[in-house]
Request: fold
Amino acid sequence: MNSRIVHIAANTFREAVRDRVLYNLIAFALLLSGAAIFVGQISIDIEKLVVINLGLTTVSLFGVVIAIFIGIGLVSKEIEKRTLYTVLSRPVRRWEFIVGKFMGLAGTLVVNTFFMAIGVFAALLYVSHRFHKPDAWILVALYFIVLQFLIICSLALLFSSFSSPLLSAVFAFSLFVIGSFAEDLRGFANMAHGLSRWLATVAAYLVPNFSALNVISSVAHEQPVVGSLIFYNTAYAFTYAAMALCGAVLIFERRNLK
Amino acid sequence: MNSRRSVTWVASLLLLASLLVSVMCLRRVDRLRAGATLEEVLYITSPQTLKRFSLGYDGLLADIYWTRAVQYFGRKHNVDSDRYDLLAPLLEITTALDPHLLVAYQFGANFLAPRPPSGGGMPDKAIELTEFGIRNNPDDWNLYYQLGFIYYMEKKDYPNAAKAFERGSRVPNAHPFLRILAAQMAQHAGELEMARMLWVTTFQSTHDKQIRANAYNHLLALKVDEDVTHLENAVTQYGQKTGNLPPSISAMVAAGLLPEIPLDPDGNPYKLMPDGRIEVGSPQNFSFIERGVPPGYKPPRPKFRQPPD
Reply:
């Protein structure tokens, strides 16, 4: 990979660590260990279910919040601190800057998710005393969560390339909520007629589809995830993220930074 | 400058290609997860829990669950399914989230009550749903009418049907037919006559196209059922009089057993079969007919003819 992109990515990662982003892991560990002990005392036969649901949901929500709140500042903060001019005065192209920032943020989230995953499995081991074969599907759910992060990072970066941090956060979070109901949106589109059907279908395909990437409930119920879904979800997440990144590059290339 | 232009071109092309591939992938994912939101497992079955999770946005969540119930019913109905396991819980959740969502009671009970494949075959659940609707919307006479309708049509429970119509007739602005229906039901009037009154009331009291078409098609079927019953009675009477089966329908007219040759709602004559049965010429044109069909006839999926304006 282009060494300039790698450097920007590494710097973004370092900056996130310096900003104490990974401190969320402490809150996560406390929440999950507390829940594992507490649920074991008050529930009958759903301890494992609660730990998986709570653990994976927390991984997802913490990651989404991190992706949005770091992603929206990636470009605007650099402009505000005037560090962007230093970077761009070197032989670094604008698209390399965008791609590097994306890689750095995605890397931060992958590392964060990795440690959280260890926490989920540790809590699971605590409540069920040993792992079972269907527990492996939790890894697929975690992988899908990482795919979600890639899409959100790219969207946050896209909004950050032309909007203020506050509006970018609102846009990104709104798209996350809408995308979580994407399948219902397509359901509405199927029930509509004429122009509204056409418009609803276009909207349904343009917003990110997070519902297909959410298999938390089914893996908590030990239901397998088919291989083809893993393949198409992967392809979808990568192409959607690429699309949003291309949009960010196009906007940033034409942005007047003077 | 050239470098910036080439970046713009490459990024634009990549954007379009990514959009295309992402839509293609999404279509495949949709196919793999067909009806994923309506899987045969409801992970959260408690309406109260969902209400708490909705953080006060229960109206929106109710709309979403109602859409899911419609999609679920439509999907099952399209494949002539005889099991609608999730229909009742979906409707229960919908109405618990928004107890004033009248459409969920009106259509929901119509989804639940009829026998499969027309509906879920769960008249008791439909009654429960409608009673819940009445408790929350006591001033809507349509719900009482619907309750009586289910008691009569699906349960043949005349006392309860009469009671439901009578309760509805006391609601301000109730359709005047409700009082008549209550009285007729109490007298246990003839089945066809009662069914016709119910479908006529349904037809007159709604503006919904689908409900009107459904009522219209039931009325057409009732007309056929009634004609076939009259004709078969005439055949029996002819046999008693002459000791033979009638050679034709016109022979029964000539014998004074029928005032004229009856025609089906499409204007076609009925067929007198060699064994004395009466058959309608094209039974597939009249969904919901119960009489005048060939032995072993399996009705196709109901076709809804639109009523004339």
